Amino acid sequence: MAGDPVSAFGGVLIANTEIDAATAEEIHTLFCEVVIAPSYSNEALTILKGKKNRIILIKKEVELPTTTIRTCLNGNLVQDKDSITDQLSDLKYVTNTNPTASEIEDLLFASKLCKNTKSNTIILVKNKQLLAGGTGQTSRVDALNQAIEKANSFKFDLNGCVMASDAFFPFPDCVEIADNAGIKSVIQPGGSIKDQLSIDYCNENNISMVMTGTRHFKH
Question: pTM for this one?
Fold first, then answer.
């Protein structure tokens, strides 16, 4: 919610664990119209019901489809769902500087957010908090600039934050922009014939970069 308080206004909040009283109090400070969670404590329900017309739903475990279908010209596009979540064991360290333990945590968290955000996307994270995302852009540079501008508009300090990209960098322009914004570590799939250009820039500017080998494109 703090990552984008403007978009959070009047939105839907979904939790993957039980909502307790303390969490409900935080939610209650927002204009949140729908809350979804696996369960709620009795105190949490009392708090959440304090706002008239708020919809409170229980999330049930269901088996989700393994394919996605999109309509397109003259037919449909059927594709496998992206079931891969990047793990520590997937990381390939490609720069002279390696990310710290806390940066790795942030990188993996950013990668999860990136996977579930519309492509082209860039995600910025610091201390396990989403600072901003640039989403659905035709250019990866535009996605990065959008994320930086959004983070700055909310007065977030980008110094020392990490960046996740859902696809490789064909040029070093993104890592240069990230460096100028204070970003110190990057996670991306790699696979460009010009990967080395971005790696070289990171090495010259003391930035760590890891590659996963998996491209996450959410369309």
Answer: 0.85
